[in-house]
Amino acid sequence: MEREIDVVVVGGSAAGLTAALTARRHYQDKSILIIRREEQVLIPCGIPYIFGTVESPENNLIPDAILGKNDIELLVDTVVDIDRAAKTLQTKGGETVLYKKLVLSTGSLPVKLPLPGSDQDSVFAVEKSVPYLESMLEEIDKASDLLIIGGGFIGVEFADECKKNRNLNVTIVEMLPHCLQAAFDEDFCKQAESLLDSKDINRITSEKIERFTGDGKVKGAILSSGSEIEADVVIQSVGVKPNIALAKECDLDIGPLGGISVDRSMCTSDPDVFACGDCAEKVSFFTGQPSRLWLASIATTEARVAGANLFGITRAYPGAIGVYSTVIGDTAFATAGLTEKGAKKAGYCSVSGRAASVNRHPGRMPGGAELVLELLFERQTRVLIGGQAMGAKSSGELINAVSACIQQGMTADQIATFQTGTHPALTASPIAYQLVNAAEEAIGAMNE
Amino acid sequence: MEREIDVVVVGGSAAGLTAALTARRHYQDKSILIIRREEQVLIPCGIPYIFGTVESPENNLIPDAILGKNDIELLVDTVVDIDRAAKTLQTKGGETVLYKKLVLSTGSLPVKLPLPGSDQDSVFAVEKSVPYLESMLEEIDKASDLLIIGGGFIGVEFADECKKNRNLNVTIVEMLPHCLQAAFDEDFCKQAESLLDSKDINRITSEKIERFTGDGKVKGAILSSGSEIEADVVIQSVGVKPNIALAKECDLDIGPLGGISVDRSMCTSDPDVFACGDCAEKVSFFTGQPSRLWLASIATTEARVAGANLFGITRAYPGAIGVYSTVIGDTAFATAGLTEKGAKKAGYCSVSGRAASVNRHPGRMPGGAELVLELLFERQTRVLIGGQAMGAKSSGELINAVSACIQQGMTADQIATFQTGTHPALTASPIAYQLVNAAEEAIGAMNE
Questions:
Q1: Can you tell me the ipTM of this complex?
Q2: Nearest residue of A to residue B410, measured between CA atoms
Q3: What pLDDT, on the 0 to 100 scale, is given for residue B448?
Q4: Domain B330-447 is found in CATH 3.40.30.10
């Protein structure tokens, strides 16, 4: 079967779906087709929650109803060949599709450590596949000792969720001195770690795995220090790599970190092919340098740029700020932009300010929880370059106000006099409001 | 007794306290004195919650400890005279204070309707006084029928709180067609009203009070339509007027809406006297016209401008955006900037976009609640001029991201590709995130 389609999107997760929806919004008369391999699409950020709060992969799916509602066709199939000269692609199922514009949103693959013994049963990575996650869930339900390799967001979320309602010994091994260190400065990391401690989650930091033990099924791991830990299930959460097999096969340019090269409009080296999401190479908003930020929220932003630009450039992506959050127990951790350490590495001279307050006023209002915000400014220009929040769950929205301030290049004085709304049952008091007070504190430090 | 002080702040509520704290942050060597009449300072926005959730005025106070910590002196006394030529002021208690810079933050007084029978017992306004509120609480605890005049934020919050844990018949009389109409467009108002209905709070809209009945203590009210309602307690929540007695007495310029005239630096007609908070005249961020927005969050923002500018102008206030929120039951309502109706009145040609989603992903994550966001853009420039949110309590922070976007003049395209962070346990999914999707919807409407 052969068909002609205006916009073909390869991949149907956060980036692909959003690119298709954006294309529909901006080009109402175009035909749009998503081709994806998976029968069912997982909510990527929800995957750790399958192992606790939401209970199964089936409870963590992106419903397909939105496709029909937006007149987007779906083909569950695998693209095996792209002919850019002919503007056609072939699927495993035998279909030939002619496209006018092509969007590659083929996502990423989990990094698997090439260690001795890693090919044994019960050594998992975080594959975005319903059957794979089902088998992982089954193994964890039977396990006594769970080893999680990597103490970033995903590792920490897996640890917290797997510990819930299970009599399970959970250990995180992290090669850096602290968990969550890529996203937070040390005192935030330490708070997160003390929450992990309070949940009896073991942490081994500044350590690597040397090899796995076992007899076909994993039994444990030997650390670089020589010590051994027991494990009947291993989860590797040590990052992802762009899935660029198709892009390479059709000779698109590839970036220095292994993603598909894109310009500010999310266009690849072929003007009729766009790329977005984890498969696309990223640059930092702050430095213009290649960036290792692979996040669903970056994927959807890139997709909103790509989808709108297909038949005429109207949007530009200024590079990744990196806005993300997590929760340990009931405590939220959220970050946007650079950490102090990251700023120094990027050549910034920075100064920070911190404000803490209960997120209600008076503090005895129901739902009151401490919310700490730290803001980071470039000293010379006084422009905001980063923020970290911790505490109340409204941190998840507060960090987006911080992101708006970063993206708009707001200075400390602009933020200190920024017009916010406050309410006894919803936020800190207007006197103590964290966003403006953290900026004031930084101004104090700048003037010293 | 006579003393010399660098910075004297008259008034110690949201504006006065924040002005003093800001002055301390920016001028570490100056002496700072707050003179206020009240022994204890109430959290202004918390006042309705005294009558339900927080139970008493004593539980809704701004603690004075922050003054000592910041080396700010306090004098509980009443200023009776200001001599601007001599730069001195006199207090009722007999003190003479010489100032270098004076900040007036004398607040506002509640409007009392000059109606027949309004001087009877149990006809209250919302006075910011602990003993007054204590007597009001005592009366409400004994009451059977409570009449609330004015269905704005304060009226609605009083109704919701007074109804809690009391067998009380509560009726709101509002002269406009809807409650909360000054802050929200009709469909948001209707949602709020249906929540009031579900709590058995009576509403009489498009009606005014003609007179009160009673024999020295109020017994009820006659409406303009002629009908009568019973009431053994009446609360008037029909707005405030700037408290400018002192400013008038010392001949400072007064603005068209009766507030102390101030420029962008919050300086009055006397270069050594600043004013901020409810007593200061306000202009709209959007129109530059006088504005009737009296909010604690505006007061504190103005105070941060005034306090920093005392000995050299470094900050400007761009006019009031108007960012505020409320809660009915568990449902938050938040607004920033112009409503559709307000935009039309101000001469804007506007276009809106709306997005709704659960504030979790998947929606079954704990704490999931619908969150609806409507954004309003100027059609020609595509710049954001307003936003209204309703639903989950994180609306209280989301509206501050909206405020940042308004204040920075962000366009619909900038917001649609704005970099946000999302998390299963904290926010909507990155695909459905309300802020960017409402902007996309508006773009669709603009392109039609």
A1: 0.94
A2: A408
A3: 76
A4: no
